[in-house]
Amino acid sequence: MEYTNLQLTKDMFEKVPKEERNINEIVRPSETYWQDVWRRLKKNKLAMGGLFFVIFITLVAIVGPYLSPYNYYSQDFSIANQGPSSAHWFGTDPFGRDIFTRILYGARISLVVGYAASILNLTIGILYGGISGYFGGRVDNIMMRIVDTLYAIPMLLYVILIMVVIGAGLKSIIFALAIAYWLSMARIVRAQVLSLKQQEFVLAAKTLGAPHMRIILRHLIPNSMGPIIVTLTLSVPSAIFTEAFLSFIGLGVSAPMASWGVLASEAMETLYIYPYQMLFPALAISLTILAFNFLGDGLRDALDPKMRK
């Protein structure tokens, strides 16, 4: 009886031919981490739209002013306050300057501020947060209490105070943003370093006698790039908006230089009479900030290991 049952059990299972096994097998191509991030990012249409717009507005800021037949500072009162036309796509301002050209030039200034301030924030935040998280103990406690103290001051007020002391101007704005907006980056880097510094590869580097800064910069920071990239991407629109606000209240770049905040400030005087003079700078600021936010959100999802399928 036992033999019969065993024989029946064997008869119930048939050997699948090799060809059929290959057909039913699920094959996934081998991918690196960054290839997988790019694949998932491409599936997010809003993030890709934001990426393409960021690339587009960056290229426009670089080459646009050279392609325009007008410059951003020449005045012609005979064509002052003209509406949009084939000659002046976005119209002219009260001094007869072409608004389209000034927006192109303003894009250059606003993006330079955004990119430069974010890179400086990245540098300061990585070094400060990496050192704090790596050494820990009393060093970490003192460094983080400094950060907490600075966090108690509203960042915008902090920037305004710095601008009042050192004066208005493009370099002053970049400097003020750089020394005021690195706190979030430092906290994120510190948290990542604290979670990684007990890993085997870090202990192996210490055993081999690697210097502390080499361990931080060559081992810990590269393995923390996901949150760092997301924070860096989201810090650019924050810097652009802060620059626009400072220029709007008169602490930005000096005339005749034009940033989007300066254009919006100048348009306030004739808002009800010539609303188009406010419309186009406001659209430029809004679309650029939205594009960076969409890209940052998409990168956050793409870099999240929990989202990997």
Automatic annotation (TrEMBL):
Main location: membrane
Membrane protein topology class: Multi-pass membrane protein
UniProt-annotated location(s): Cell membrane
Annotated Gene Ontology cellular component terms: plasma membrane
Keyword Repressor attributed: no
GO biological process: transmembrane transport
Pfam families: BPD_transp_1, OppC_N
Keyword line: Cell membrane, Membrane, Transmembrane, Transmembrane helix, Transport
The keyword Transit peptide belongs to this UniProt entry's keyword annotation: no
Domain ABC transmembrane type-1: 107-296
Annotated family: Belongs to the binding-protein-dependent transport system permease family.
Protein name, UniProt field: Oligopeptide transport system permease protein OppC (TC 3.A.1.5.1)
Originating species: Caloramator australicus RC3
